């Protein structure tokens, strides 16, 4: 088992033949697309990766990623820390055609040669693992900012687009 900072590129076929397990960190600044989602770009991802043979003798990467990330709460718009953890099982494929042919329950990552960019694989899994909407568990919006119930319902008459159809139906049933 390898521990410490993870290399940016690895020979995935050699890791499979060695039945290797990698455990270490990758700094956020190596993950450009992922850090675009964050408020604070400082920190790193803790990764545990295991390389083995998968379906049709393809490389299978089984992994666990953990990171504490700073994001914006989408309810109160204040900064918050999110404990992000994601587990994944990804097949390493040579072509987009192989990716398209995967069964629906399988995930794949296209890597045409032996050198696998770990940062790209980890970055993809982190982005997929991010919640669609980030918010505090117990988020209190300032009461002054919250709309009054009358404002939500609206004042006056409600527009009824199908009222004319109801009138036509009544006329037809009477005739």
Structure commentary:
It is a single chain. The chain is an alpha/beta fold and 175 residues long. The protein has one domain (2-129). 25% of the residues lie in helices and 34% in strands. The chain is built from 6 helices and 8 strands; from the N terminus they run E-E-H-E-H-E-E-E-H-E-E-H-H-H. It has helices at residues 12-17, 32-35, 96-100, 118-129, 149-153, 163-174; strands at residues 2-5, 9-11, 21-27, 44-53, 59-72, 79-93, 107-110, 115-117. It has a 6-stranded mixed beta sheet with strand order 1-3-4-5-6-7. Strand 5 (59-72) and strand 6 form a beta hairpin.
Write down the Rg.
Answer: 25 Å
Distance between the termini: 85 Å
Average pLDDT, all residues: 86
Total beta strand runs? 8
Instruction: Report low-confidence residues grouped into runs of 5 or more.
Output: none
């Amino acid at each position: 088992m390898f521990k410490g900072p993870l290399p940016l590129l690895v020979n995935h076929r050699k890791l499979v033949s060695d039945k290797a397990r990698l455990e270490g960190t990758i700094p956020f600044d190596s993950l450009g697309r992922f850090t675009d989602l964050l408020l604070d770009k400082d920190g790193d991802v803790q990764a545990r990766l295991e390389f083995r043979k998968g379906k049709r003798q393809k490389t299978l990467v089984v992994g666990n990623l953990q990171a504490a990330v700073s994001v914006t709460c989408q309810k109160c718009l204040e900064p918050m820390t999110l404990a992000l953890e994601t587990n994944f099982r990804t097949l390493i494929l040579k072509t987009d055609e192989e990716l398209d042919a995967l069964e629906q329950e399988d995930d794949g990552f296209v890597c045409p040669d032996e050198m696998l960019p770990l940062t790209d694989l980890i970055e993809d899994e982190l982005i997929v693992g991010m919640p669609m909407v980030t918010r505090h568990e117990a988020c209190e919006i300032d009461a002054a900012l919250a709309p009054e119930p009358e404002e939500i319902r609206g004042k006056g008459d409600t527009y009824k687009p199908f009222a004319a159809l109801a009138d036509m139906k009544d006329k037809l049933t009477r005739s």
